[in-house]
Amino acid sequence: MTGKFGLRLGSGGMAFDNTVGIVDFARMRQERLAKAQAAMKKNGLAVALLLRPENIRYVTGTHFPDFIERLRYTLAFAEHEPILFTMGGLAFGVCPWIKPENLKLSIHWASESAGQEATWEAAKRFALEIKAELKKKGLENEQLGIDGFIDEPGRQALTEAGIKLVNAQPVLLEARAIKTQDEINCIHMASVIADTAHYAMYQAIKPGVRERDIAIAGNNALLNAGAESVWNVAVSSGGRIGGTNLISDKIIQVGDVVTIDIVRASYMGYQTCYYRNYVVGRKPTDKEKDLHKKSLDRMYKVIDAIKPGISTADCAKHWMPAKEKGFSEEWYMWCDDLAHGLGLWLYEYPIINRLWSLDHPMTIEKDMTMAIECMEFDPMVGRTKLEEMIAVTDTGVEIFTRMPVKDMMIASPIITAES
Prior knowledge:
six-stranded mixed sheet, 2 domains, Creatine Amidinohydrolase, Chain A, domain 1
């Protein structure tokens, strides 16, 4: 274990639009847009229609509750300022850094709930307005990149309007892969917030409480500490394999191993993914310690291998082959041994696993931010899974997550005469 902790943040998470807080938001907006435009130019993409909320936020610096698909979308240009299409009413005026002429009313069809005829009418208007904006910029004959969040009415309407569509998501992932210093600070702050939640849950884990009670304590701590949003706090215990969003009313008992993941708690949109293991009321058994150590050792072999210029294939060789776990192919191991880029979304470049990295390697670069996770399983114990959040430095990594990881944590220890 050679990774070192990142520097402590010098202030809290206050959101100033200058350099007083931990993030200079004006600078971050400018740098992100410049990186997106540079990636578009590099890949020969003059214009892209962005519908994924994280891509819209990356290019425009705006955030809004996207409670309906395509409620907002953006035309991003390699040579021009982006145009943001957004919901009418209160949504206008929330982004003063966008010029009024670049702020347009969005057209959507509420996931086709408008009915077939109304949906098609809206989709045609949507497509014609996109084409009109392309024509204003002299780009009506250019291919239009899209990032994946388009339904069939939208895709068909754009095609019938004579617009040729190409995949823009790899271009945006390329732009987002290497983080600016302000982005790194956002991810660092997200990990600080997650640390507070893990500690709150450590305190909440007691015989007699439910998994749900622990998750509530985690959610409350995240929001109190400044999380912008929380997608899930996954809690599983005592041999129960509770996948994401499968928190139960199971009662915690003495001796249970509790595994917790804080999934997509965000600070200014930047995401977390952060596992820890706890044993309730007693010291861990040799078997439990062995499972924990196996996860720890593999995870840190990957972490210790990470540095600029190295291939993801060179890191992935430290993960356990599927056949050693009794599986016929690596698809079974998709989320057991994995490292993934972190940013405005949970999975960004790069990915490190045996499924893809060995045959399709990526190059690790300075200022990439990642989560590295590793799991062991025993039917009598359940999962032991660990995960660290890191940033790539000149020579290795900085680790942002600070809850103890070397040994299993004992929650609500019960003192006996021989303790």
